[in-house]
Amino acid sequence: MFTWGSSHRGGRHAARTILLSSSLFAMMACFALPARAGDIPKPKTQAMPAYPQAAKSMKVSGEVYVEAVVTAQGTVKQVRPVFGNLILSKAVTDAVSQWKFAPSANEHVVVAAFNFVNP
Q1: Is CATH 3.30.2420.10 what the domain over 2-116 is classified as, yes or no?
Q2: Which long-range contacts (CB under 8 A, 24 or more apart) does 29-37 make?
């Protein structure tokens, strides 16, 4: 499962959901919209996390949540794990740190969640 949301710092927001799927994990994207809908950071590139071989061999699966700060220029300034297995969290943190967004008027906090399912 892949979920990502954004919140404009200090602004009100509403939510919208988009559903997608993939062979390694089902993905769901959620956007928390700021009060001004035109100021939503639009993703340009999104690296997907690799399922770590160590996690596969140990049959580790589960959800991972990370929080990323996206600058007004569209770069990811900081990523920190919020919830999940440490091996899986490292893979998600590495992938999300490579994401690029279209420039926006404000800095945003983006929350991404991935659900790894061991085949």
Answers
A1: yes
A2: 29/2, 29/3, 29/4, 30/3, 30/4, 30/5, 31/4, 31/5, 31/6, 32/5, 32/6, 32/7, 32/111, 33/6, 34/6, 34/7, 34/8, 34/106, 34/108, 35/8, 35/11, 36/8, 36/11
